[in-house]
Amino acid sequence: MRYTILAALVIVGSLEAGDWQFTGAAGFGDYRYLSYQSPAGDAQAGIGPRYVLNAGVGRAFGDRFVVQGEWTFQDGDFEISSGGRKTAFDANAYSVQGDVLFYLRRGASRWRPYLAGGSGAKLYHGQEAPHPRPLGQFGSFRDGIDARPLFTFGGGVEVPLSTRFALRLDVRDYATPFPASVIVAAPGSNLSGWLHDLVAVGGLELRIHKFH
Predict the structure, then answer these.
(1) Residue 63 pLDDT greater than 60, yes or no
(2) Which of 40, 83, 142, 212 could form a disulfide with 137 if both were Cys (CB 3.0 to 4.6 A apart)?
């Protein structure tokens, strides 16, 4: 949980006098499945695509940089598939992270593309009572939480509406080690690697200048 603590410190550190940015957004996330081999044959494991909710608070440093903390919730069932068949388990994921945004154009521009990167923690939460289900020869699911270090990178564009409000479109790759304690491969299988989640959100940004 040290990643969560570090991200929280970023958020607290931004709550000093200065140019603040508060953002609320919603969108869609699409995970890339991992392929693996088991004694029963080839299979894929991952998480189904679903909606995303996002909130953030940040502090601007000049016209180019913003340091911010973000919280993200993403719905999506755990899934295992093979041979055109699929089995699923009710689940979701949420993350806390610290980010740095670098704007490619200055604040007076009518639209401002930016690059973003950061790290934190992502918690994969299985929330269904386990029971026998199809494709059990390839793996199973568990009710519980698997916390993994998170790395995120991408970018977006900000379109100012006024001195206080702006629209923001953000596209990121959220990457973590595979949550193998809640999506469990069958014995003798080789299921490991990084789980990538392409997330696109759009939302509204509120700016508060030189708040004291």
Answers:
(1) yes
(2) 40
End-to-end distance of the chain based on CA atoms, in angstroms?
A: 32
> 166 — alpha (psi -120 to 50), left (phi > 0) or beta?
beta
How confident is the model over 191-200, as pLDDT tens digits?
A: 889 999 999 9
- Picking from 140, 182, 146, 148, the residue whose alpha carbon sits closest to that of residue 43 is 140
The Cα 36–Cα 144 span in angstroms is 23
Question: Which residues, at least 6 apart from 2, have a Cβ–Cβ distance to it below 8 Å?
Answer: none
* pLDDT tens, residue by residue, 76-112: 999 999 999 999 999 999 999 999 999 998 877 789 9
In degrees rounded to 5, what are phi and psi of residue 182? -115, -25
Ranges of H-type helices in 14-156: none
| 203: CB partners within 8 A, 6+ apart | 23, 24, 25, 26, 54, 167, 168, 170
Q: Is the dihedral of CA 74, 78, 82, 85 positive or negative?
A: negative
Q: Which of 40, 47, 66, 56 is nearest to 176 (CA)?
A: 47
More confident residue, 63 or 22: 22
The dihedrals phi and psi of 97, each to the nearest 5 degrees, come to -150, 160
H-helix or E-strand spanning residue 104: none
